[in-house]
Amino acid sequence: MDWSQSLRLIAPEETITVAGLVLLLVAAWGGDKASRLISIVSVATLVAAMALVAPALCGGAMGPETSAFFGQFRADAFASYAKILIYGSAAVTLVLAPSYFERYDSMRAEFPLLVLFASVGMGMMVSAADLLTLYIGLEMMSLSSYVLAAILRSDGRSAEAGLKYFVLGALASGILLFGMSLTYGFAGTTSFAGINSSVSEGLSNGALFGIVFMLAGLAFKISAVPFHMWTPDVYEGAPTPVTTFFATAPKVAGLGLIMRVLLDAFGEQAAAWQQIILFVALASIVVGALGAIGQSNIKRLMAYSSINNVGFILVGLATATQAGASGMLIYVTIYVAMSIAGFTAILMLKDENGNYVEDIPKLAGLSRTRPGLALALATVMFSLAGIPPLFGFWGKFVVFQAAVQADMLALAFIGIAASVIGAFYYLKVVKVMYFDEPADVVKGESDIWHKLILVVACAFISPLGYLLTSWLGETANTATTALFAAL
């Protein structure tokens, strides 16, 4: 093996790791007073990592030359696509966080460091070509995430969210590890390529159980039904910038990892896992839609919305085709933008004392008191609902189109019908803001960075986003071609 080639391929992970270790020393000596400097350097590091992975995506990198460390790591175009979304989401989180934590006098130097180390783990997840790499990356992300959820120590809700996330996450990791052990036992290898070769002529019952347990563990990470129970409590209890992070980067990493495992390691036996994904997709769509109807806290509503949207994304995976995988990447990209816009708007909902407003009834009449903020939040809600001409409609369209092309008409019809149900709770928020008598609660001013991020994200999910459909489709096709080339 050429070590220099392997080290070159992991340059983004090396950059973030070295920066994280150096900044860890800065945090140890400078304390929380250095938190802003550490955040700025961390954002610059993540942007540099995005620049390092971009050439692989633009060049459509695939094949043996993208393999590192005896085939355990793959730095292809698919991994690069996911990493750009992951690092970008992490950078936005770090930009949004300071003003929130300074409100509680709780901005800690460890926060950007945890985001950096979680990003390293997520990068390993989407580049995993071996069960060992998969688990190491997953645990790096998870351990950082548990601390992030509970980082606001002065808030009991944050501590509760961190504890719930840790306990349930540990259970999910155990289930995943058991599934990996079964897979290794019956396939005789931890390599995705080796597993694919081993099951190509038939899948034993033991290997099938391995798939089931692995999917159960991975479904927890993307908050898919029936492993979604942690999501509303953690989204509500965790600090809002952390919730923004959970709703974006780990979602991309989890979905990318599931695509790697199913389409790479078990691509030859798609019939064995398609029924599982079909159930998880439809159950997530229905449970997410019905669960959100009775919510009065906007962060809990966004939690159920994430469950609902994960279901729609998995419709693309259920097709087991390149068109479906490409549709997934397009949908994930749009969903990340919608989530960033939604949670940035939530961070801007403050009363005259600077306290954050999360109760939906308190948003009554927001269109008359803060018309710009109400318009942005309405844009997010309509786009999440998939109502044309907003860009969120395109995400649903491409995955349903892939389902129709794969002769899964029933799946497409059920998904479309369920999306109509889901539109109810999004429209409820718009109705409260535009048609109820003003509560006149939201009066606080927002940081300029929040406004800038909200404007950019809303522009992307507005009808202007359709100008990018051709480029986005070609880029997603390039990424998925690299994924299927590994089969």
Descriptive account of the structure:
The chain is built from 20 helices and two strands. The protein has 487 residues and is mostly helical. Strand 1 and strand 2 form a beta hairpin. Helix 9 packs parallel to helix 12 and helix 16 runs antiparallel to helix 18. The model has no long low-confidence stretch (mean pLDDT 89).
Question: What structural keywords apply?
Answer:
single chain; 487 residues; mainly alpha
Briefly say what this structure is.
With 487 residues, the chain is an all-alpha fold. The protein has helices at residues 3-9, 11-30, 35-58, 77-103, 110-127, 131-149, 156-187, 192-199, 205-221, 231-237, 240-265, 270-293, 298-318, 322-347, 366-369, 371-385, 392-405, 409-435, 448-461, 469-485, and strands at 67-68, 73-74. The chain is 75% helix and 1% strand.
